[in-house]
Known about the structure:
The chain is an alpha+beta fold and 62 residues long. The protein has one domain. Helix content is 31%, strand content 37%. The chain contains 2 helices and 3 strands. The protein has a 3-stranded antiparallel sheet, with helices on one face. It is globular. The model has no long low-confidence stretch (mean pLDDT 87).
Amino acid sequence: MRACLAWAEQHGPRERLTAIIDPEHVRSRRLAARLGFTEVAQSHYHERPICIFGRPRRALSI
Length: 62
């Protein structure tokens, strides 16, 4: 995951990184929090609930 974030930090076109996570995936939510993401919204995708996490693009210390 850190390698993906490092790539996105350097090459991503947006000022914010976004993660879409199933609300029932507690481990994924915890990992996102450890990586600096915060929950910004809840929604539905294909009639299933999702949590949307975001964080600003920044230098990542690996």
